[in-house]
Design a protein that fits this description.
Blueprint lengths: L1 H17 L5 H8 L3 H7 L3 H8 L5 H8 L5 H18 L1 H13 L10 H17 L4 H14 L2 H10 L4 H22 L8
Length: about 190
């Protein structure tokens, strides 16, 4: 039983890494099992994708890539890291986004890695802010969550016609601008003071 489950997860990961559209039928075929068997192990495609591909620790990626305490630079790096992760497995991410739009009750099952990534990127600044600016920090995190997201990346690519690299650069620029504005507006001023 564990070998079959593992084969299904591996097949989903393999297909996700191609960036192509993913269906339970395609995963089952890749795993060498029937679609019914795949559904016995995973009740829906969302639960399978959560087990197979939504496990990468993006905060660890940011930690290894960040060599600065500047929150503006760090948030730009966070946007780029999330954007590249989304693009690498865009077929799987599109399935996850679509399923939570079609069935909002499943949104609790969707990984929300962007919040941990944003909070880690802003940590040097938020630690200096203290509790008096907590509401401002929380508002910035919510605003950045709208920018540093798969949905925003797909809108830039699908609706605005940007290339993937242009879309990621746009996310990073907007995230940096929002962060710089929030820091400048905070009572302590820029983080480098």
């Amino acid at each position: 039983m564990e070998r079959t489950r593992s084969a299904i997860v591996t097949a989903a990961r393999t297909l996700a890494d191609t960036g192509a559209e993913i269906t339970m039928r395609a995963v089952a075929a890749e795993a060498g099992v029937s679609e019914a068997t795949a559904y016995r192990y995973f009740p829906d495609l969302l639960s399978l994708l959560r087990a197979a591909v939504m496990t990468e620790d993006l905060v660890a990626v940011l930690r290894s890539a960040t060599h600065s305490d500047d929150p503006v630079e760090r948030i730009g790096q966070a946007a780029e890291i999330l954007g590249r992760a989304v693009l690498r497995r865009q077929g799987a991410v599109r399935v996850v986004v679509a399923s939570t739009i079609a069935k909002p009750a499943t949104s609790k099952d969707r990984p929300v890695r962007r919040f941990a990534l944003i909070e880690h990127a802003l940590a040097p600044w938020t630690e200096r802010c203290g509790s008096t600016q907590r509401a401002d920090v929380e508002q910035l995190v919510r605003g950045l969550a709208l920018v540093i997201s798969a949905e925003s990346l797909f809108a830039l690519i699908d609706l605005c016609g940007l290339s993937p690299d242009e879309a990621i650069a746009s996310l990073a620029t907007t995230a940096r601008q929002m962060t710089a504005a929030a820091i400048a507006a905070s009572p302590g001023g820029p983080a480098t003071d």
